Amino acid sequence: MIRTLNNSSPEAKAFIRHLREDLLQHRVKLTFSRSRKVRFYGNLLTAGFFQVPSGKKWGKISIGTGNRKPITILTNLAHEYSHFLQWKNGDTEWVHDQCDHIEGEKYVILEQRTEREAIHLLSTWKIPANFKAIRARSKAYIAYLRLTEINT
Hints:
With 152 residues, the chain is of the alpha+beta class.
C-alpha cells in the first residue's frame, strides 16, 4: 500500500483490503503511481482508470497519487472500483469492447452514476471524510464533463 494510505483510518484500510481481494478474484491488478496522473491508452493522462481483463491479460485499476490527499486518492479509487463493479455485474451501460468509447450524454450519465456509487461505497464503509466536499468535487467534475463532452 502506498505511504500516504498507510496512515489511513482502519475503515479505509479494511475497504482497500476488501477491494484488493475482490479485484484479484477477477484477475484485476491494483496499482498506485507516485505521479499525480497515470497514462491510459496511449498518451491520455488521467487521475485513474479501470481496464477490463481480456483473454490471458489481467485487467488493471491504476491510481495516480502524487501530492494528493489520502481522501482524494480513496475517492478516485472508489470511482474506478465502481467502474469495475459495473463491469463485473454486467451493467448494460458499461462498454465491454475496449475499442468502443462512450461519448457525449451517455458518458456523462455513466460518470454521474459512477460518482454516486463511489460516494455510496465510501459512506457504506464508514470512511471518515467530509462528504459535503466530496459531493461538491463530484458535481464540479460532472459539470466539467457536460461542458467538454456535450457542448463541444
